Amino acid sequence: MDILTLCNEINLQTEIKNKILAFEKTFDFKTVDKQLKDFFIYKNMEKARIELKSILGKDKDNIKMLMCMLKASTIAYETYKIKGIDDEIYFSTMKCYTRFIDETSKRTHRFYFDRDWWTTRQAGCHLFRIGSLEYEISHIDNKISIELHIPSDSDLSPSSVNQSLTNAKKFFNIYYLETKNAEYCCHSWLLDGQLRAMLKDNSNIIEFQKRFEILDAGETDTEFIQWLFNKNSTDTDYANFPEHTSLQRNMKKHLLSGGVIKNVYGKIK
After folding, report:
1. Series of mean pLDDT values for 10-residue runs along the chain (269 residues)
2. Where do the domains of the chain lie, and which CATH numbers do they carry?
3. Which residues make beta-bridge pairs with 263?
4. SS3 (DSSP) at 177
5. Phi-psi region of 62 (alpha: psi -120 to 50; beta: other; left: phi over 0)
6. Residue ranges in the chain assigned as alpha helix (H)
């Protein structure tokens, strides 16, 4: 696997791909070899990312950082092959780069990369896209858990979620035996119980919530604004938020009345 092949397989935006390939021709990856290898060690990946940013220096639109993330992702392909993981999962996982750039473009009307704080997980073989959902092997306080993440293009219908969970359990039982007794958890605004007053009881989001035992009351957060309204998470001009869906309409009323939304933590029952 090389960067050009990966870019083509994930349909990376042409404008971004051309910049990546131009930088690649002049860049010596030996200067960041340690950092890219450290992505594969869960406890080291964030430190490695910060070191990498320092080494790369000035980086317009984070193109150099994206190039290094893609390089690490091509190295990750070797792990997939050694373990025998199907290419479909590899490319589905790595399409995160294209999706993230699209999401940012819709919000800001220009192409650039702003998710290096997240993609160490994909590049380091810690997170996998399996059907509708993403699954991260999380190592915290010597405890392994499987963290569920909901991509912006997820199909949250009960049948799709069921299929994803079934395939994920098979995947981890085959390729990551150390996760055998791991709990499947989720930390998301989509688990906030307040949504039950904003949606029908049989909506996909509420059906998704019903799968979880809630473990905490959550903490106030505004990231949902980006996903639900396609606005910056710091935007407080609620009166101008769109109202295309019932959730948008009800959430807008909730925010205008002084309400907040929380990221809530739960585990699969």
Report:
1. 98 97 96 98 97 97 98 98 98 98 94 96 98 96 95 97 98 96 96 97 96 94 95 95 96 97 97
2. 3-268 (3.40.630.120)
3. 219
4. helix
5. left
6. 3-9, 14-26, 33-38, 45-56, 63-83, 87-94, 96-108, 116-123, 158-175, 204-209, 224-229, 246-256
